[in-house]
Design goal:
Shape: globular
Number of strands: 4
Radius of gyration: 26 Å
Order of helices and strands: HEHHEHEEHHHHHHHHHHHHHHHHH
Helix content: 55-70%
Strand content: 5-15%
Structural class: mainly alpha
Distance between the termini: 37 Å
């Protein structure tokens, strides 16, 4: 039931030091971008540029785990003139970032000596992925599209697996029609691969990660997910809790989709919690309630709201749910039931019902240690609820709190986006007065 309210864009570098000071890893060139291009041409090398900002968390991941690696340093220093560009530093560094449309951090670009982009990576990379990308640029390994062509024609499982492992990074950096074309290709390749591979050899960490990346998340009776369910004990003995968590997320998605659609078939999949998926659900912390009891409350409530449109019965059931949780109740429990009630009723609530949403959200806001994004989501819903109740001063107070909370977000782009949302809500309030 975990909610993902926002997706963070910044992918980590406090660049007050140079990697070269470690005496291993990548030795970064200290001149300008143009000087790096000239040096690369003179030494018959390519240019690698790490575009970063001092506030970016995942840039630091590259600095501390990848750029300092001896194997990475040996290859990169031999084949590239490497440099780092601070996208916020006035002058040639900021201008270079703008010229190459760097909007996500870190952005890692491999250049030819004439400044032509040979390859572009968006986001932090693990060592193996980073080295593979560098070797592709140098012609030492097949490019992604050529590897795909070989995998598609030969139907070689090893090639197909390699394409699928690289696809999230490769396709994630594409845009528009190009991205859509590759999404269709990769989805088709995944379907072929899973059908061919499904069996004892399919039960491994790499293939589980591929399933997590590409398998449909809410298709009931999906062949791959049913294979995992059938072999769940083997999966969990071999790979730990990850397969169990995947099955819980999958089954919950199916149950939720059916409940929202008003199909009482959701109860059939709910019963799996006490059946073939009991081992998976056993790893989920549910406090004083059993996993079945906890999720039955939750999805029965969804069914009442979406199909029967019975808001009052939903309120009664959710208050029983909160009481049953006792001291195990959390901010997210209050936040989720409030959000479900407000969103699934499409805001068509009377004042008494709105008052209940408000009370749940106020309680959610009282918990310490709640994640920043969750807090912003709760306080924004609270502002919307106050607005619906015509309590405009309190709505203004809630939106202002959301604005102030947004200032604490490390990623500047995401912070600015949320601040803009709060400003628009405040402007709409003024018009409502």
């Amino acid at each position: 039931m975990t909610k993902k309210y926002f997706v963070m864009i910044c992918f980590t570098l406090f660049m007050g030091w140079s990697v070269s000071s470690y005496g291993q890893g990548i030795q970064f060139f200290k001149g300008t971008f143009d000087e790096a291009l000239a040096k690369a041409k003179q030494e018959n090398k390519l240019v690698f540029v790490d575009f970063y900002a001092v506030w970016c968390g995942p840039c630091k991941q590259m600095t501390e785990k990848v750029f300092v690696d001896e194997e990475v340093g040996k290859f990169m220093n031999d084949k590239f003139i490497c440099m780092q560009v601070d996208v916020e530093k006035a002058g040639w560094q900021k201008e270079t970032a703008e010229k190459f449309n760097v909007t996500v951090l870190p952005t890692l670009i491999f250049f030819k000596p004439d400044a032509t982009v040979a390859s572009r990576l968006v986001g932090a990379r693990e060592k193996a992925d980073f080295l593979n990308s560098a070797k592709v640029v140098c012609g030492e390994r097949l490019s992604f599209d050529k590897l795909y062509d070989r995998a598609k024609s030969k139907k070689d499982l090893a090639d197909m697996q390699l394409v699928l492992k690289q696809a999230p990074e490769e396709v994630g950096g594409m845009q528009g029609m190009e991205a859509q074309k590759w999404i269709v290709r990769i989805d088709k390749l995944y379907a072929e691969y899973a059908k061919m591979k499904m069996g004892p050899d399919f039960i491994n960490k790499e293939d589980l990660q591929i399933v997590q990346a590409f398998n449909k998340k809410n298709v009931k009776d999906d062949a791959v997910m049913e294979f995992i369910a059938k072999n769940l004990e083997t999966y969990m003995n071999k790979l730990g809790e990850a397969p169990g968590i995947l099955m819980v997320e999958y089954n919950n998605a199916v149950v939720g989709q059916l409940a929202k659609a008003g199909k009482d078939e959701y109860k059939k999949y709910l019963e799996r919690i006490n059946g073939d998926l009991e081992t998976a659900y056993a790893i989920m912390p549910t406090g004083t309630l059993t996993p079945y009891e906890k999720f039955k409350y939750y999805y029965d409530g969804m069914y009442l709201l979406s199909y029967k449109k019975d808001v009052d019965s939903y309120v009664q059931l959710m208050n029983k749910y909160i009481a049953a949780l006792g001291n195990q109740v959390s901010a997210n429990d209050y936040g989720e039931i409030a959000q479900n009630m407000y969103v699934m009723s499409k805001g068509k609530l009377n004042n008494e019902q709105l008052g209940q949403v408000k009370d749940w959200l106020v309680k959610a806001m009282q918990y310490e240690g709640t994640g920043l994004i969750d807090r912003i989501n709760f306080v924004t819903m609270l502002g919307d609820t106050y607005k619906a109740l015509k309590q405009l001063d309190k709505a203004k107070e809630a939106y202002n709190q959301g604005y102030m909370e947004a200032l604490q977000i490390e990623n500047k782009m995401r912070s600015a986006q949320i601040q803009m949302i709060m400003k628009r809500k405040l402007e709409a309030l003024e018009l409502a007065k």
